[in-house]
Design a protein that fits this description.
By secondary structure, the protein is an alpha+beta fold. The chain folds into 3 domains: 6-134, Immunoglobulin-like, CATH 2.60.40.150; 138-274, C2 domain (Immunoglobulin-like); 278-554, 3-Layer(aba) Sandwich (Rossmann fold), CATH 3.40.50.410. It is 20% helix and 32% strand. The radius of gyration is 26 Å and the shape is globular.
Amino acid sequence: MAQCVTKVELSISCENLLDKDVGSKSDPLCVFFISTGEKQWAEIDRTERVKNCLAPKFSKKFLVDYYFEQVQKLKFGIYDIDNKTIDLNDDDFLGHFECTLGQIVSSKKLMRPLLLKNGKHAGKGIISILAEEIKDNRMVNFQVQARNLDKKDLFGKSDPYLEFNKQTDDGKWQMAHRTEVIKNNLNPSWKAFKIPLHSLCNGDIQRPVKVECYDYDNDGSHDLIGTFETNVTELQEASQNAMEFECINPKKKQKKKNYKNSGIVIVKSCEIVKEYSFLDYIMGGCQMNFTVGIDFTGSNGDPRSPDSLHYINPNGFNEYLMAIWSVGMVVQDYDTDKLYPVLGFGAQIPPNWQVSHEFPINFNPDNPFCAGVQGIVDAYCRCLPQVRLYGPTNFSPIINHMATFAAAATQQPTASQYFILLIITDGVITDLDNTRQAIVNASKLPMSIIIIGVGGADFSAMEFLDGDDGVLRSPSGEVAIRDIVQFVPFRKFQNAPKEALAQSVLAEVPQQVVCYFNTRKISPPNEQKSPPAEQKSPPNEQKIPPAEQNLEELLDF
Protein backbone atom coordinates (compact mmCIF):
# COMPACT_ATOMS: atom_id res chain seq x y z
CA MET A 1 0.00 0.00 0.00
CA ALA A 2 1.27 3.45 -0.86
CA GLN A 3 2.17 5.69 2.03
CA CYS A 4 -0.58 8.20 2.77
CA VAL A 5 0.16 11.85 2.11
CA THR A 6 -1.32 12.96 5.42
CA LYS A 7 -4.13 12.30 7.87
CA VAL A 8 -7.37 14.20 7.61
CA GLU A 9 -9.89 14.78 10.40
CA LEU A 10 -13.55 15.01 9.34
CA SER A 11 -16.07 16.90 11.50
CA ILE A 12 -19.76 16.18 10.80
CA SER A 13 -22.83 18.29 11.47
CA CYS A 14 -26.38 18.24 10.07
CA GLU A 15 -29.39 20.52 9.75
CA ASN A 16 -33.13 19.97 9.22
CA LEU A 17 -33.07 16.21 9.73
CA LEU A 18 -36.24 14.18 9.34
CA ASP A 19 -38.18 13.75 12.59
CA LYS A 20 -38.92 10.03 13.05
CA ASP A 21 -39.87 9.96 16.73
CA VAL A 22 -43.35 10.38 18.16
CA GLY A 23 -43.50 12.76 21.09
CA SER A 24 -39.85 13.83 20.73
CA LYS A 25 -37.25 14.49 18.07
CA SER A 26 -34.91 12.07 16.28
CA ASP A 27 -31.79 10.78 18.08
CA PRO A 28 -29.27 10.96 15.22
CA LEU A 29 -25.95 9.20 14.81
CA CYS A 30 -23.58 9.32 11.83
CA VAL A 31 -22.03 6.12 10.42
CA PHE A 32 -18.90 6.42 8.30
CA PHE A 33 -18.29 3.99 5.42
CA ILE A 34 -15.44 3.54 2.94
CA SER A 35 -15.98 1.89 -0.44
CA THR A 36 -14.54 -1.60 -0.80
CA GLY A 37 -15.69 -2.20 -4.36
CA GLU A 38 -18.60 -1.67 -6.70
CA LYS A 39 -21.60 -0.77 -4.48
CA GLN A 40 -19.86 -2.38 -1.47
CA TRP A 41 -19.17 -0.49 1.73
CA ALA A 42 -17.33 -1.29 4.95
CA GLU A 43 -18.36 0.48 8.13
CA ILE A 44 -15.34 2.19 9.67
CA ASP A 45 -16.65 4.20 12.61
CA ARG A 46 -19.64 5.90 14.22
CA THR A 47 -20.21 9.15 16.04
CA GLU A 48 -21.99 9.43 19.33
CA ARG A 49 -25.80 9.58 19.37
CA VAL A 50 -27.27 13.05 19.97
CA LYS A 51 -30.66 12.83 21.66
CA ASN A 52 -33.69 14.84 20.57
CA CYS A 53 -31.91 16.94 17.98
CA LEU A 54 -32.58 17.69 14.30
CA ALA A 55 -29.44 19.82 13.89
CA PRO A 56 -26.67 17.81 15.56
CA LYS A 57 -23.03 18.80 15.78
CA PHE A 58 -21.24 15.54 16.40
CA SER A 59 -18.35 15.68 18.86
CA LYS A 60 -16.57 12.57 17.61
CA LYS A 61 -14.35 13.07 14.56
CA PHE A 62 -13.42 10.64 11.79
CA LEU A 63 -9.72 10.25 11.03
CA VAL A 64 -8.85 9.24 7.45
CA ASP A 65 -5.59 8.50 5.68
CA TYR A 66 -5.51 10.69 2.58
CA TYR A 67 -4.02 9.17 -0.61
CA PHE A 68 -3.54 11.67 -3.41
CA GLU A 69 -3.20 8.93 -6.04
CA GLN A 70 -6.43 7.11 -5.12
CA VAL A 71 -10.11 7.86 -5.56
CA GLN A 72 -11.31 7.30 -2.01
CA LYS A 73 -15.08 6.90 -2.02
CA LEU A 74 -16.79 7.73 1.27
CA LYS A 75 -20.35 7.47 2.53
CA PHE A 76 -21.97 9.12 5.54
CA GLY A 77 -25.22 7.58 6.77
CA ILE A 78 -27.46 9.31 9.30
CA TYR A 79 -29.68 7.09 11.46
CA ASP A 80 -32.21 7.67 14.23
CA ILE A 81 -31.07 5.34 17.03
CA ASP A 82 -33.83 4.19 19.40
CA ASN A 83 -32.49 0.81 20.61
CA LYS A 84 -29.32 -0.82 21.93
CA THR A 85 -28.55 -3.13 18.99
CA ILE A 86 -25.69 -2.39 16.59
CA ASP A 87 -27.69 -3.54 13.55
CA LEU A 88 -28.59 -0.48 11.47
CA ASN A 89 -31.56 -2.34 9.98
CA ASP A 90 -33.28 -1.86 13.33
CA ASP A 91 -33.00 1.94 13.11
CA ASP A 92 -34.75 4.66 11.10
CA PHE A 93 -32.75 5.88 8.11
CA LEU A 94 -32.55 9.67 7.92
CA GLY A 95 -30.47 9.98 4.77
CA HIS A 96 -26.99 9.53 3.37
CA PHE A 97 -24.38 11.32 1.31
CA GLU A 98 -21.65 9.86 -0.92
CA CYS A 99 -18.55 11.68 -2.13
CA THR A 100 -14.79 11.33 -2.48
CA LEU A 101 -12.22 12.47 0.03
CA GLY A 102 -10.69 14.58 -2.73
CA GLN A 103 -13.94 16.51 -3.06
CA ILE A 104 -13.98 17.23 0.66
CA VAL A 105 -10.36 18.36 1.01
CA SER A 106 -10.52 20.52 -2.11
CA SER A 107 -13.54 22.30 -0.63
CA LYS A 108 -12.38 22.06 3.01
CA LYS A 109 -16.06 22.29 3.99
CA LEU A 110 -18.65 20.47 1.92
CA MET A 111 -22.40 21.09 2.41
CA ARG A 112 -24.80 18.85 0.52
CA PRO A 113 -28.41 17.60 0.79
CA LEU A 114 -28.99 14.20 2.34
CA LEU A 115 -30.59 11.63 0.05
CA LEU A 116 -32.94 8.73 0.70
CA LYS A 117 -32.28 5.26 -0.70
CA ASN A 118 -34.50 6.02 -3.70
CA GLY A 119 -32.31 9.00 -4.59
CA LYS A 120 -34.80 11.64 -3.49
CA HIS A 121 -33.98 14.39 -1.02
CA ALA A 122 -34.44 13.51 2.66
CA GLY A 123 -36.69 16.50 3.26
CA LYS A 124 -34.56 19.59 3.76
CA GLY A 125 -31.80 17.61 5.48
CA ILE A 126 -28.27 18.94 5.00
CA ILE A 127 -24.93 17.42 5.96
CA SER A 128 -21.78 19.50 6.46
CA ILE A 129 -18.35 17.88 6.38
CA LEU A 130 -15.35 19.91 7.49
CA ALA A 131 -11.86 18.58 6.68
CA GLU A 132 -8.70 19.52 8.57
CA GLU A 133 -5.22 18.16 8.07
CA ILE A 134 -3.73 16.53 11.15
CA LYS A 135 -0.11 17.43 11.79
CA ASP A 136 0.02 17.26 15.56
CA ASN A 137 -0.13 14.13 17.74
CA ARG A 138 -0.22 15.99 21.04
CA MET A 139 -3.19 15.47 23.36
CA VAL A 140 -4.49 17.56 26.24
CA ASN A 141 -5.51 15.47 29.24
CA PHE A 142 -8.15 17.10 31.45
CA GLN A 143 -9.73 16.60 34.84
CA VAL A 144 -12.47 19.16 35.46
CA GLN A 145 -15.05 19.79 38.13
CA ALA A 146 -17.45 22.59 39.10
CA ARG A 147 -19.24 23.97 42.13
CA ASN A 148 -22.28 26.10 42.90
CA LEU A 149 -23.78 25.80 39.43
CA ASP A 150 -27.17 27.40 38.86
CA LYS A 151 -30.23 25.24 39.53
CA LYS A 152 -32.09 24.94 36.21
CA ASP A 153 -34.61 22.14 36.81
CA LEU A 154 -37.99 22.77 38.40
CA PHE A 155 -38.11 19.48 40.31
CA GLY A 156 -34.40 18.87 40.69
CA LYS A 157 -31.04 20.56 40.50
CA SER A 158 -29.23 20.61 37.14
CA ASP A 159 -27.84 17.91 34.86
CA PRO A 160 -24.60 19.63 33.80
CA TYR A 161 -22.19 18.89 30.99
CA LEU A 162 -19.38 20.88 29.36
CA GLU A 163 -18.58 21.73 25.76
CA PHE A 164 -15.08 22.86 24.75
CA ASN A 165 -15.01 24.97 21.59
CA LYS A 166 -12.18 26.01 19.28
CA GLN A 167 -12.10 29.38 17.56
CA THR A 168 -11.77 28.91 13.80
CA ASP A 169 -9.87 31.20 11.43
CA ASP A 170 -13.05 33.13 10.62
CA GLY A 171 -13.72 33.81 14.31
CA LYS A 172 -16.54 31.30 14.69
CA TRP A 173 -16.67 28.55 17.29
CA GLN A 174 -16.41 24.83 16.54
CA MET A 175 -17.06 22.18 19.19
CA ALA A 176 -14.00 20.09 20.03
CA HIS A 177 -15.31 17.97 22.90
CA ARG A 178 -18.45 17.29 24.94
CA THR A 179 -18.26 15.69 28.38
CA GLU A 180 -20.76 13.24 29.80
CA VAL A 181 -23.89 14.46 31.59
CA ILE A 182 -23.90 14.28 35.40
CA LYS A 183 -27.45 13.99 36.69
CA ASN A 184 -28.93 16.15 39.45
CA ASN A 185 -25.69 17.71 40.69
CA LEU A 186 -24.62 21.33 41.19
CA ASN A 187 -21.08 20.34 42.16
CA PRO A 188 -20.14 17.86 39.42
CA SER A 189 -16.81 16.17 38.82
CA TRP A 190 -16.53 14.88 35.26
CA LYS A 191 -14.57 11.83 34.21
CA ALA A 192 -11.02 12.47 32.98
CA PHE A 193 -10.99 13.12 29.24
CA LYS A 194 -8.58 14.08 26.49
CA ILE A 195 -8.80 16.33 23.44
CA PRO A 196 -6.33 16.42 20.53
CA LEU A 197 -4.40 19.68 20.80
CA HIS A 198 -5.10 20.30 17.14
CA SER A 199 -8.85 19.91 17.64
CA LEU A 200 -8.80 22.23 20.66
CA CYS A 201 -6.63 25.08 19.39
CA ASN A 202 -4.93 24.11 16.11
CA GLY A 203 -1.77 23.47 18.16
CA ASP A 204 -1.60 27.14 19.24
CA ILE A 205 -1.84 27.20 23.04
CA GLN A 206 -2.60 30.94 22.98
CA ARG A 207 -5.59 30.51 20.66
CA PRO A 208 -8.97 31.29 22.32
CA VAL A 209 -10.97 28.40 23.72
CA LYS A 210 -14.59 28.78 24.84
CA VAL A 211 -16.01 26.51 27.55
CA GLU A 212 -19.78 26.28 27.89
CA CYS A 213 -21.68 24.61 30.70
CA TYR A 214 -25.20 23.36 29.91
CA ASP A 215 -28.06 21.77 31.81
CA TYR A 216 -29.14 18.68 29.84
CA ASP A 217 -32.85 18.27 29.02
CA ASN A 218 -34.41 15.16 27.51
CA ASP A 219 -36.32 17.15 24.92
CA GLY A 220 -33.11 18.58 23.48
CA SER A 221 -33.69 22.13 24.74
CA HIS A 222 -30.51 22.24 26.81
CA ASP A 223 -30.20 25.37 28.99
CA LEU A 224 -27.00 27.37 29.09
CA ILE A 225 -25.74 27.63 32.66
CA GLY A 226 -22.71 29.75 31.86
CA THR A 227 -19.63 30.19 29.73
CA PHE A 228 -16.11 31.59 29.79
CA GLU A 229 -13.25 32.11 27.35
CA THR A 230 -9.65 31.13 27.99
CA ASN A 231 -6.74 29.39 26.24
CA VAL A 232 -4.65 26.29 26.85
CA THR A 233 -1.87 28.28 28.53
CA GLU A 234 -4.32 29.66 31.07
CA LEU A 235 -5.89 26.24 31.58
CA GLN A 236 -2.44 24.81 32.37
CA GLU A 237 -1.68 27.64 34.77
CA ALA A 238 -5.05 27.19 36.44
CA SER A 239 -4.38 23.51 37.09
CA GLN A 240 -1.00 24.33 38.62
CA ASN A 241 -2.00 27.37 40.68
CA ALA A 242 -5.53 26.45 41.79
CA MET A 243 -7.04 29.20 39.65
CA GLU A 244 -10.78 29.08 38.97
CA PHE A 245 -13.03 30.20 36.13
CA GLU A 246 -16.36 31.95 36.62
CA CYS A 247 -19.21 30.65 34.47
CA ILE A 248 -21.08 33.71 33.19
CA ASN A 249 -24.60 33.62 31.79
CA PRO A 250 -24.89 36.72 29.54
CA LYS A 251 -28.68 36.99 29.86
CA LYS A 252 -28.66 36.76 33.66
CA LYS A 253 -25.79 39.23 33.87
CA GLN A 254 -27.75 41.72 31.80
CA LYS A 255 -30.91 41.37 33.86
CA LYS A 256 -29.52 41.21 37.41
CA LYS A 257 -27.59 44.12 38.90
CA ASN A 258 -25.89 42.09 41.64
CA TYR A 259 -25.13 39.10 39.40
CA LYS A 260 -21.74 37.48 40.10
CA ASN A 261 -21.67 34.19 38.23
CA SER A 262 -23.59 30.99 37.54
CA GLY A 263 -20.99 28.73 39.07
CA ILE A 264 -17.29 28.04 39.23
CA VAL A 265 -15.31 25.65 36.98
CA ILE A 266 -12.12 24.17 38.45
CA VAL A 267 -9.48 22.65 36.18
CA LYS A 268 -7.82 20.05 38.39
CA SER A 269 -5.46 18.88 35.67
CA CYS A 270 -4.49 20.11 32.21
CA GLU A 271 -1.51 18.26 30.76
CA ILE A 272 -0.18 18.23 27.19
CA VAL A 273 1.21 14.83 26.25
CA LYS A 274 2.45 13.29 23.03
CA GLU A 275 0.23 10.44 21.91
CA TYR A 276 1.75 8.04 19.42
CA SER A 277 -0.19 6.82 16.40
CA PHE A 278 -0.70 3.26 15.20
CA LEU A 279 1.96 3.75 12.55
CA ASP A 280 4.35 5.13 15.17
CA TYR A 281 4.15 1.76 16.93
CA ILE A 282 4.22 -0.37 13.78
CA MET A 283 7.07 1.54 12.18
CA GLY A 284 8.81 1.64 15.54
CA GLY A 285 9.10 -2.15 15.63
CA CYS A 286 5.93 -3.45 17.32
CA GLN A 287 5.09 -6.96 16.12
CA MET A 288 1.50 -8.12 15.55
CA ASN A 289 1.18 -11.74 16.68
CA PHE A 290 -1.67 -13.52 14.91
CA THR A 291 -3.43 -16.60 16.34
CA VAL A 292 -6.41 -18.46 14.87
CA GLY A 293 -9.08 -20.41 16.78
CA ILE A 294 -11.28 -22.77 14.71
CA ASP A 295 -14.65 -24.21 15.76
CA PHE A 296 -14.78 -28.01 15.34
CA THR A 297 -18.14 -28.56 17.05
CA GLY A 298 -20.71 -31.01 15.69
CA SER A 299 -23.15 -28.30 14.58
CA ASN A 300 -20.85 -27.63 11.62
CA GLY A 301 -21.95 -30.92 10.06
CA ASP A 302 -19.95 -33.86 8.73
CA PRO A 303 -16.94 -32.42 6.83
CA ARG A 304 -17.44 -35.10 4.16
CA SER A 305 -20.91 -33.77 3.34
CA PRO A 306 -21.35 -30.83 0.91
CA ASP A 307 -23.83 -29.38 3.43
CA SER A 308 -21.14 -29.05 6.11
CA LEU A 309 -19.54 -25.69 6.87
CA HIS A 310 -16.23 -27.58 7.00
CA TYR A 311 -16.73 -29.20 3.59
CA ILE A 312 -13.78 -28.40 1.35
CA ASN A 313 -15.09 -27.87 -2.13
CA PRO A 314 -12.45 -28.84 -4.73
CA ASN A 315 -13.55 -25.81 -6.77
CA GLY A 316 -13.40 -23.23 -3.99
CA PHE A 317 -13.06 -22.32 -0.32
CA ASN A 318 -15.50 -22.87 2.51
CA GLU A 319 -16.31 -19.93 4.78
CA TYR A 320 -13.67 -20.92 7.35
CA LEU A 321 -10.94 -20.81 4.72
CA MET A 322 -12.20 -17.57 3.23
CA ALA A 323 -12.16 -15.93 6.66
CA ILE A 324 -8.62 -17.19 7.32
CA TRP A 325 -7.37 -15.91 3.97
CA SER A 326 -9.11 -12.56 4.23
CA VAL A 327 -7.79 -11.61 7.66
CA GLY A 328 -4.49 -13.47 7.47
CA MET A 329 -3.34 -11.83 4.25
CA VAL A 330 -3.59 -8.41 5.92
CA VAL A 331 -2.13 -9.28 9.31
CA GLN A 332 0.83 -11.25 7.94
CA ASP A 333 2.57 -8.05 6.86
CA TYR A 334 3.02 -7.05 10.50
CA ASP A 335 4.58 -10.28 11.79
CA THR A 336 8.18 -10.81 10.70
CA ASP A 337 8.52 -14.54 11.37
CA LYS A 338 5.06 -15.34 9.89
CA LEU A 339 4.61 -18.30 12.23
CA TYR A 340 1.06 -18.54 13.54
CA PRO A 341 -0.33 -20.76 16.30
CA VAL A 342 -3.64 -22.29 15.21
CA LEU A 343 -5.90 -23.91 17.81
CA GLY A 344 -9.08 -25.91 17.44
CA PHE A 345 -11.91 -26.28 19.95
CA GLY A 346 -14.95 -28.48 20.45
CA ALA A 347 -13.56 -31.71 18.91
CA GLN A 348 -12.60 -35.15 20.13
CA ILE A 349 -8.94 -35.59 19.25
CA PRO A 350 -6.72 -38.65 18.89
CA PRO A 351 -5.40 -40.80 20.41
CA ASN A 352 -7.68 -40.75 23.49
CA TRP A 353 -10.63 -39.03 21.76
CA GLN A 354 -11.24 -36.65 24.63
CA VAL A 355 -12.91 -33.32 23.91
CA SER A 356 -10.45 -30.44 23.74
CA HIS A 357 -11.06 -26.70 23.53
CA GLU A 358 -7.50 -25.59 22.77
CA PHE A 359 -5.66 -28.21 20.73
CA PRO A 360 -3.06 -27.33 18.06
CA ILE A 361 -4.50 -28.35 14.71
CA ASN A 362 -1.09 -29.71 13.67
CA PHE A 363 -1.23 -31.94 16.81
CA ASN A 364 2.22 -30.73 17.93
CA PRO A 365 1.89 -28.98 21.32
CA ASP A 366 5.61 -28.21 21.38
CA ASN A 367 5.45 -26.42 18.04
CA PRO A 368 1.86 -25.34 17.28
CA PHE A 369 2.94 -22.85 14.62
CA CYS A 370 1.92 -22.83 10.96
CA ALA A 371 4.20 -21.17 8.40
CA GLY A 372 2.29 -18.37 6.72
CA VAL A 373 -1.37 -18.24 5.76
CA GLN A 374 -0.88 -21.15 3.37
CA GLY A 375 0.50 -23.16 6.29
CA ILE A 376 -2.70 -22.49 8.24
CA VAL A 377 -4.80 -23.65 5.30
CA ASP A 378 -2.73 -26.82 4.85
CA ALA A 379 -2.86 -27.71 8.56
CA TYR A 380 -6.62 -27.14 8.65
CA CYS A 381 -7.19 -29.44 5.67
CA ARG A 382 -5.02 -32.16 7.21
CA CYS A 383 -6.73 -31.83 10.60
CA LEU A 384 -10.35 -32.27 9.49
CA PRO A 385 -10.21 -36.02 8.71
CA GLN A 386 -8.35 -36.74 11.97
CA VAL A 387 -10.83 -35.31 14.51
CA ARG A 388 -14.41 -36.02 15.51
CA LEU A 389 -16.61 -32.94 15.60
CA TYR A 390 -18.30 -32.73 18.98
CA GLY A 391 -18.94 -29.84 21.39
CA PRO A 392 -19.79 -27.67 23.26
CA THR A 393 -18.78 -24.21 21.91
CA ASN A 394 -16.43 -22.86 24.58
CA PHE A 395 -14.42 -19.72 23.83
CA SER A 396 -12.77 -19.00 27.19
CA PRO A 397 -9.99 -21.66 26.99
CA ILE A 398 -8.57 -20.19 23.76
CA ILE A 399 -8.92 -16.61 24.99
CA ASN A 400 -7.14 -17.46 28.24
CA HIS A 401 -4.48 -19.37 26.29
CA MET A 402 -3.78 -16.28 24.18
CA ALA A 403 -3.89 -14.03 27.25
CA THR A 404 -1.01 -15.98 28.77
CA PHE A 405 1.28 -14.96 25.91
CA ALA A 406 -0.01 -11.37 25.91
CA ALA A 407 0.61 -11.17 29.66
CA ALA A 408 4.18 -12.40 29.16
CA ALA A 409 4.75 -9.58 26.68
CA THR A 410 3.86 -7.01 29.35
CA GLN A 411 7.10 -7.93 31.12
CA GLN A 412 8.95 -6.10 28.33
CA PRO A 413 9.57 -2.35 28.85
CA THR A 414 8.64 -1.41 25.27
CA ALA A 415 5.62 -1.70 23.00
CA SER A 416 7.23 -4.61 21.22
CA GLN A 417 4.28 -7.01 20.79
CA TYR A 418 0.54 -6.94 20.30
CA PHE A 419 -1.70 -10.00 19.89
CA ILE A 420 -4.67 -10.57 17.59
CA LEU A 421 -6.88 -13.61 18.13
CA LEU A 422 -9.20 -14.60 15.26
CA ILE A 423 -12.00 -16.97 16.34
CA ILE A 424 -14.14 -18.49 13.58
CA THR A 425 -17.31 -20.17 14.81
CA ASP A 426 -20.70 -21.43 13.61
CA GLY A 427 -22.68 -21.38 16.83
CA VAL A 428 -23.73 -19.73 20.04
CA ILE A 429 -21.22 -19.62 22.90
CA THR A 430 -21.98 -22.14 25.64
CA ASP A 431 -19.57 -20.74 28.26
CA LEU A 432 -20.74 -17.13 28.00
CA ASP A 433 -19.98 -16.19 31.63
CA ASN A 434 -16.46 -17.61 31.47
CA THR A 435 -15.95 -15.90 28.12
CA ARG A 436 -17.09 -12.57 29.55
CA GLN A 437 -14.58 -12.92 32.39
CA ALA A 438 -11.83 -13.92 29.97
CA ILE A 439 -12.48 -10.86 27.77
CA VAL A 440 -12.58 -8.50 30.76
CA ASN A 441 -9.20 -9.90 31.86
CA ALA A 442 -7.81 -9.66 28.33
CA SER A 443 -8.88 -6.01 28.03
CA LYS A 444 -5.98 -5.22 30.38
CA LEU A 445 -3.49 -6.80 27.98
CA PRO A 446 -1.99 -5.95 24.55
CA MET A 447 -4.61 -8.02 22.79
CA SER A 448 -7.60 -7.80 20.40
CA ILE A 449 -10.21 -10.45 19.60
CA ILE A 450 -11.94 -10.84 16.23
CA ILE A 451 -14.92 -13.19 16.02
CA ILE A 452 -16.32 -14.19 12.63
CA GLY A 453 -19.59 -16.11 12.61
CA VAL A 454 -20.00 -18.53 9.69
CA GLY A 455 -23.20 -20.20 8.51
CA GLY A 456 -26.77 -19.13 9.10
CA ALA A 457 -27.01 -19.28 12.90
CA ASP A 458 -28.55 -16.53 15.03
CA PHE A 459 -25.54 -14.59 16.28
CA SER A 460 -27.46 -11.88 18.15
CA ALA A 461 -25.99 -13.02 21.47
CA MET A 462 -22.50 -12.59 20.01
CA GLU A 463 -23.05 -8.83 19.66
CA PHE A 464 -23.19 -8.72 23.45
CA LEU A 465 -19.41 -9.27 23.52
CA ASP A 466 -18.71 -6.44 21.08
CA GLY A 467 -18.38 -3.32 23.22
CA ASP A 468 -19.36 -0.85 20.48
CA ASP A 469 -22.81 -0.24 21.94
CA GLY A 470 -22.12 -0.55 25.65
CA VAL A 471 -19.77 -1.70 28.38
CA LEU A 472 -18.96 -5.39 28.73
CA ARG A 473 -18.93 -6.64 32.31
CA SER A 474 -17.78 -9.88 33.87
CA PRO A 475 -20.34 -11.99 35.80
CA SER A 476 -19.08 -10.33 39.00
CA GLY A 477 -19.67 -6.85 37.55
CA GLU A 478 -16.06 -5.95 36.67
CA VAL A 479 -15.97 -3.62 33.67
CA ALA A 480 -13.77 -4.20 30.60
CA ILE A 481 -11.36 -1.26 30.61
CA ARG A 482 -11.41 -1.05 26.81
CA ASP A 483 -13.31 -2.55 23.88
CA ILE A 484 -11.18 -5.33 22.35
CA VAL A 485 -13.80 -7.46 20.57
CA GLN A 486 -15.05 -7.06 17.00
CA PHE A 487 -17.75 -9.45 15.78
CA VAL A 488 -19.14 -9.80 12.25
CA PRO A 489 -21.28 -12.50 10.59
CA PHE A 490 -19.60 -13.79 7.42
CA ARG A 491 -22.90 -13.81 5.52
CA LYS A 492 -22.81 -10.01 5.31
CA PHE A 493 -19.74 -10.32 3.08
CA GLN A 494 -20.67 -13.27 0.88
CA ASN A 495 -21.18 -11.06 -2.18
CA ALA A 496 -18.61 -8.43 -1.25
CA PRO A 497 -15.04 -8.13 -2.58
CA LYS A 498 -12.58 -10.35 -0.77
CA GLU A 499 -10.93 -7.33 0.91
CA ALA A 500 -14.19 -6.16 2.54
CA LEU A 501 -14.28 -8.69 5.39
CA ALA A 502 -10.74 -7.92 6.55
CA GLN A 503 -11.28 -4.18 6.30
CA SER A 504 -14.36 -4.44 8.48
CA VAL A 505 -13.04 -6.72 11.21
CA LEU A 506 -9.61 -5.10 11.38
CA ALA A 507 -10.86 -1.50 11.28
CA GLU A 508 -10.88 -1.15 15.07
CA VAL A 509 -7.51 -2.81 15.69
CA PRO A 510 -5.33 0.31 15.16
CA GLN A 511 -7.26 2.34 17.74
CA GLN A 512 -7.22 -0.62 20.13
CA VAL A 513 -3.43 -0.84 19.80
CA VAL A 514 -3.02 2.90 20.37
CA CYS A 515 -5.45 2.89 23.30
CA TYR A 516 -3.55 0.13 25.07
CA PHE A 517 -0.04 1.52 24.70
CA ASN A 518 -0.88 5.21 25.08
CA THR A 519 -2.96 4.80 28.24
CA ARG A 520 0.00 2.98 29.78
CA LYS A 521 2.45 5.60 28.49
CA ILE A 522 4.40 2.92 26.62
CA SER A 523 6.33 4.37 23.70
CA PRO A 524 7.38 2.56 20.50
CA PRO A 525 10.58 0.49 20.74
CA ASN A 526 12.60 2.96 18.69
CA GLU A 527 11.61 5.79 21.06
CA GLN A 528 13.28 4.22 24.07
CA LYS A 529 16.36 6.04 25.28
CA SER A 530 18.25 2.89 26.16
CA PRO A 531 16.72 -0.04 24.29
CA PRO A 532 17.77 -3.47 25.50
CA ALA A 533 20.25 -5.34 23.39
CA GLU A 534 18.54 -7.36 20.69
CA GLN A 535 18.43 -11.03 21.51
CA LYS A 536 17.68 -13.41 18.72
CA SER A 537 16.07 -16.72 19.48
CA PRO A 538 14.03 -19.25 17.55
CA PRO A 539 10.49 -18.04 16.75
CA ASN A 540 8.95 -20.63 19.04
CA GLU A 541 10.95 -19.40 22.00
CA GLN A 542 10.07 -15.81 21.26
CA LYS A 543 6.36 -16.50 21.48
CA ILE A 544 6.16 -18.98 24.38
CA PRO A 545 6.27 -17.55 27.93
CA PRO A 546 8.26 -19.31 30.70
CA ALA A 547 6.65 -22.62 31.54
CA GLU A 548 6.80 -21.99 35.27
CA GLN A 549 4.65 -18.84 34.96
CA ASN A 550 0.88 -19.18 34.79
CA LEU A 551 -1.68 -16.63 33.69
CA GLU A 552 -2.48 -15.41 37.20
CA GLU A 553 1.18 -14.66 37.90
CA LEU A 554 1.60 -12.77 34.64
CA LEU A 555 -1.58 -10.71 34.95
CA ASP A 556 -0.40 -7.97 37.26
CA PHE A 557 -3.77 -6.22 37.62
